[in-house]
Amino acid sequence: MSEAVSTGLLDRTIRRITTVWRDMASGVPDETLEAQMRTCLAGRGGEVSARNRAARLAETYLAADEPGRREFLLTLASFDSDPDAVAAAYAKVTAAADPAERSAAKAELRRALEPPRLRLLTQFASIPDGCKFLVDLRGALLRVRGSDKMLAALDADLRGLLAAWFDIGFLELQRIDWNSPAALLEKLVTYESVHAIRSWRDLKNRLDSDRRCYAFFHPRMPGEPLIFVEVALVKGLAGSVQDLLNEKAPVLDPAMADTAIFYSISNCQGGLAGISFGNFLIKRVVGELSGEFRNLKAFATLSPIPGFRRWLDPLLAAEAEALLSGDESVSLVSAYPAESGCAALAGIIGKRSWWRNAQLREVAEPVLVRLCARYLMAESKHNHALDPVAHFHLSNGARVERLNMRGDTSDKGARESATLMVNYLYDPTKIEDWHEDYAGEGKRNASTAVRKLARGWS
User: Fold this and answer.
1) How far is CA 266 from the centre of its chain?
2) What do you get for the CA distance between the two ends of the chain, in Å?
């Protein structure tokens, strides 16, 4: 369903945008790509002429094939600062005789350093859907940039512009429900990146009375969510995403819920990569839900652990020392004959639907929970949690609350985390303290049970 909806939505959007831009640019003469960019920079004529030229240039990009779009980006990147002007301005800074003269020289140096391509990028923002065009342009740039230094410089300029334009102060939080415009609901299906929406019935279930969905929007991109979060109102911590998404489960009266579970957070715009909204979104939604439902006592996630198998599998293959206790190895080999405990565990979790076998489940699950606690609490990269989702929530001020075997029994859940999911708890009274612990000292807060598991068998 997602692929069909995504393709149709994209086609309609492109047709609408290109029609508007074609009408605007109908009187602009044909020129080579570089000439078009130079004409835009020259700025001859009034504001309407400038917008028409920018629309024509944007239309040129959208009409190009993949090699043509890369050429467009390379040509745009080539409009860099004039090195002679930069050198002259810097010489004035070093030669300045007093603070006032030096300050003026520095301002001149900043102007000289600003590449003309920045002015070109800014001109796109003046045309209809110009902000969306720039976001998508950066998404394409990130895909082709590679190690090209000119494209990396263009990306730095574009990211800086977008970071300023999409500052959290400009964003609007909106609730999405079943009565929202159909085009917006289609975009939820398209952008959902954690738990794919399988059907319209599935989507309706996620927007029922005991569910909430919130998204950030930008005023210059109405109808285009930047990031959204799906929430389930439940009793107690949820431990299975399949249970949460069960379309046949009875609908809970929200007034009876005591816990809000954030079970999916999806970034919608690839061109805004590196510009984080997720931490603000969660805190804003906690505030919204607290105001609407006084009965809610806990706010937590049911989160994937996408890096667990990526960390564990090589260790099992290498027969890493101290990974398993002697008793664990004996139990594993007795349930799944192999040359070692590591080989037995690797064989078990490599077996399709292994968790349906009670004997395998009994010996493997305690070991997997312990190893996952170690992975989340001890394994690091640059003093941060190795798992990207763990890093996201810990840096936002959450703590690791509980590990759940068979939390996600989909093929993806088995492949990435051996079915494990984790609850991260957001305590409004502790968020700032836990954020400071992690950001300042790298300390990972966790429940007593998780800390005990992470200490291991030794």
Assistant:
1) 6
2) 49
Q: Rounded to 5 degrees, what angle do the CA atoms 68, 71, 76 make?
A: 130
Q: What single letter denotes the amino acid at residue 111?
A: R
**Which amino acid type is present at position 436?**
E
DSSP annotation of 263 reads E
Nearest Cα neighbor of 111 from 150, 81, 78, 155 is 81
Which of 44, 73, 193 has its CA nearest to residue 134?
73
Asked if 458 is an active-site residue, the reply is no
Whole-prediction pTM value? 0.87
Does position 28 have pLDDT exceeding 50, yes or no?
A: yes
Helix axes 149-165, 116-124, angle to 10 degrees: 50
- d(CA 395, CA 444) in angstroms, rounded, equals 9
Tokens of 284: 């804003």
Residue 284 CA to residue 282 CA, distance in Å, equals 5
Catalytic site residue 218?
A: no
**pLDDT tens per residue across span 429-458:** 999 999 999 999 999 999 999 999 999 755
CB atoms within 10 A of CB 257: 21
Among the listed residues 303, 329, 331, 417, the single catalytic one is 303
DSSP 425: E
